[in-house]
Amino acid sequence: MSALEKKRFLPQVLLRSDWAPPLLAAMLLLGMTGCALFSSAKRQGAGEAESLESALSGMIPLPFEDGMANDANREMAALDEASRIAAADLTHFTESGDPLLRSGLVMALSVRVGDKLEVQPMRVQVMDQGVILLPMIGTVVCDGLTLTQLKSVLEDRYGAFYRSPEISLSFLYEEGGVSPWGRVLVQGRVMREGWVNIPATRDLSVSSAIQMSGGYNTSAKKSDIAVHRRQADGTTQRIPVDLERVGKRGEIERDISLRPGDVIYVPESKY
Question: By C-alpha distance, which of 17, 29, 15, 78 is closest to 263?
Answer without folding.
Answer: 78
